[in-house]
Design goal:
With 70 residues, this protein is of the alpha+beta class. Helix content is 29%, strand content 24%. It is built from two helices and three strands. A three-stranded antiparallel sheet has the order 1-3-2, with helices on one face. The protein is globular. It starts with 6 loop residues before the first strand and ends with a helix. The model has no long low-confidence stretch (mean pLDDT 86).
């Protein structure tokens, strides 16, 4: 809310509801949020949706997908 830019939301598969998996996703998101580098996307938020699926909100980066690159 109140953000004036395009963001990317990565919603993980609902099967990632195991507490250990969810903790690992949040831990990785928090570590990534601490990084500041021109070649690294900014992580704004992470959490769990009302349906129980973990998610991460990052800045949107224009460009080819990894699959297209390879």
């Amino acid at each position: 809310e109140g953000v004036d830019q395009t963001l990317a939301v990565r919603i993980f598969n609902a099967r990632f509801t195991d507490n250990t998996q969810v903790r690992n996703i949040h831990k990785a998101a928090r570590k990534a949020a601490d990084l500041t580098h021109i070649n690294h996307v900014t992580v704004y938020e992470d959490g769990v949706s009302a349906e129980g699926a973990p998610y991460i909100v990052t800045e949107w980066v224009e460009g080819d997908t990894l699959a297209e690159t390879f």
